Amino acid sequence: MGSKYPQSVRCCLPLWAIMLEAALILIFAFFSTYELPMDQKFMETYQVLQDLTVMAALGLGFLTSSLRRHGWSSVAFNLFMLALGVQWTVLLDGFLKPHFSWSMSINLSSPGLSIRTATMSAMAVLISAGSVLGKANLVQLAMMVLVEMTAFAATRFLHWKIFRMEDHVTMMYVHVFAAYFGLTVAWCLSRRLPQGLDRKARMEKVQIATSPSLFAMLGTLFLWIFWPSFNSALVDSPHVKKNAVFNTYYALAASTVTAASASALAHPQGKINMIHLHNAVLAGGVAVGAPGHLIPSPWISMVLGLIAGLISITGAKCLPVCLNRMLEIQDPSGVHYTFGLPGLLGGVTYIILITHHTFSESTPSLIGLVSQVTNDIGALSFLMAAGMVSGLLTGLLLNLKIWKAPHAAKYFDDQAFWEFPHLAVGF
Question: Second label for 68, Cα 20 to 30 Å away, from 107, 236, 398, 411?
Answer without folding.
Answer: 398
